[in-house]
Amino acid sequence: MKNVHVIAACGVGMASLAGMLKENGFRVTGSDNDVYPPMSTQLEQLGIRISSPYKAENIPADAELVVVGNAVSRENPECVEAVRRKLPLLSMPQALAEYFIEGRESIVVAGTHGKTTTTSLAAWTLFALGDDPSFLVGGVPKNFPVSYRIGHGPRFVVEGDEYDTAYFDKGPKFLHYRPKTVLLTSIEFDHADIYRDLDHLKESFLKLARLIPEDGLLIACADYPDVVELAGESRCPVVFYSVSDEAPPLPPGAELHSVTGLREEGGFSRFRLDEDGPEYRLRLPGRHNAANAAAVAIACIRAGFAPERIVEAMSGFEGVRRRQEVVGEFGGVLVVDDFAHHPTAVRETVRAVRGRWPGRRVVAVFEPRSNTSRRNVFQKEFAAALAEADSVVVAGVFGAGKIPEGERMSPDQLAASVRSLGREATVIAAVDDIVEHIADSCGPGDLVLVMSNGGFGGIQAKLAAALDPGATRT
Prior knowledge:
This protein is α/β, with parallel strands linked by helices. The chain folds into three domains: about 5-90, NAD(P)-binding Rossmann-like Domain (Rossmann fold, 3-Layer(aba) Sandwich), CATH 3.40.50; about 105-315, 3-Layer(aba) Sandwich (UDP-N-acetylmuramoyl-L-alanine:D-glutamate ligase), CATH 3.40.1190; about 325-465, Alpha-Beta Complex (Protein-Tyrosine Phosphatase, Chain A), CATH 3.90.190.20. It contains 14 helices and 23 strands. Helix 6 (about 200-210) links the parallel strand 12 and strand 13.
């Protein structure tokens, strides 16, 4: 039995890997600079000891392998100690591929948008179909107790992140996942801290497409021109899907499946995959989620499952924490939490909640927190996306001092641009002040949409308490 030490164990992917290793009989220890839930809670429940802060003596004397998270630098004292002791080092994607994906058919979900939801939906649908899949997802699916599963079936579903892998491997994570099938949801510029521009980003996705073997499958969203362009470089068969009202230009003879008849009814998004197909029911709102579901449906059909069975399995998917998640209704104000941090995701999320809860005034609360949203690369696009809401509150830029002023997102300019598009917009830097503003300005029938890819100072629970002091969070 190997004794494994995991550095940066409280990240979603790293904590999931640690749990998988423990479940497979490894003895696992871990460390992190900040021990924080929900992953610290998950690790505690699994009986995995976590040390903090980082220091050389955290690595047990009998450790045989060290797994290094991608946020860890070579100067980390535990990395220095592991090198001194000549312990083998693996990144999270390397360890996942070597110990869990090997011998299984890998289904990799990649793209700028929708990876976590699509991966979770694929995992649940296959599970409900009796396929007994394994999976690892960068979020917390509501249908499962933890963010991973080791099944006995032939397939492994994994969220394929384009972010870099480790300090000793600056390539994207998804290149390690041995893809047999790839679901490619979208390609847009993102991760401005590691990619120079869109062309640089596309190089990584091109490498992924070329990894798919000739007997594999690429399921590609035709609504993104760069996805269509990249698909032409793959060696395997390609199936396109689209939720667009206009047929996109595709290569002659390309196979295309279209989402048709999309509507909201009875708490479900309802649509057909092609006009003659059965009607799918998805608890998640919005066109983007219908597109994600179409990709999963195609993958399951190609795996041999009947569409009618897929429809029933998919209807039981409950979603993912922090993806259009209803926090609750407090004093008549509905609070919805989402991870959106790219202008396209912000736009589609606002449109989705409007479609699911028509007639409510939508107040968008946005925190520039991701490495891209903290920069001014999408300043104009964020304004247009946020202007889909009725009123906008822009929080302070998270960790603003780490971004050079000339590259930094300007909340004041962003709010001014939103106002120029005819919407209310204000800048409120501190979380407690935002909460006070929302409590004073919102009333029954309003919908507050919180968007951030981080903790946002616990704003969700604070809003619940301020809007209705006697209520409890769902």
